[in-house]
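2.7 Reproducibility. Because tokenized structures are sensitive to small changes in the input, we list the exact sequence used for Glutathione S-transferase family protein, including any N-terminal residues retained from the expression construct. No trimming or masking was applied before prediction.
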Amino acid sequence: MIRFYFHPTPNPAKVALFLEEAGLPYELVPVDTRKGEQHLPAFRAINPNGKLPAIVDTEGPGGKETRVFDSSAILLYLAEKTGRFAGSPADRPELLSWLFFIASGIGPYSGQAVHFQLAAPEKLPYAINRYRREVDRHYQVLDQHLAGRDYIVGSDYTIADISAWGWLDRAGVALPGEADVLAAYPNLKRWFAAIDARPAVAKARAVGKSHSFKAEMDEDARRALFPSNYPKAAE
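Resulting structure tokens (single pass, no recycling of outputs):
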């Protein structure tokens, strides 16, 4: 059994999609980041970085309970464990390249674009311009790569597609203000529509819907989400 530590944000959504695609049994463990539950010692023992997602596989290698944190690490772990969505051996270098392109490019730049446009206390034109332009640049790279391709790597659906879907599903939040944000990237739009139509996507989107996560972005939520913005209490 897999315990899946979840909050309804793009990186956990990727893991939800893999679990639903593979039909793996799992126990959902909601972690409300606006309440600061990611900083509790019990969760920090699973992910010392205090971020979502994370999993604990009670039937890990050698039958040992195994923790895995960071969405890319989890996708790789589950792909290797199940033999699903990992591409062919010949595809592996390409798979790793695109998986880490998403992890080091699309993900963090999208996250910072969202932060400076929606969460930052000051609207800093330089920061907003910088991160929006980097999101656009990464989208262009992927759009060009997808010309004539159905999937990001090889000829089959892989964890690279799953990972990219997690963030492209929030393209309108990273680049707000556009009625059809993916219209400028026709290959990316075609690819996203095909992935988004998969039956497992609807199931992934339903994960956690029965749990009432905190919606208010009050001062306590800001301190929980952005603790490094606040001075530590004197010891």
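The chain has two domains: 2-84+203-229, 89-197.
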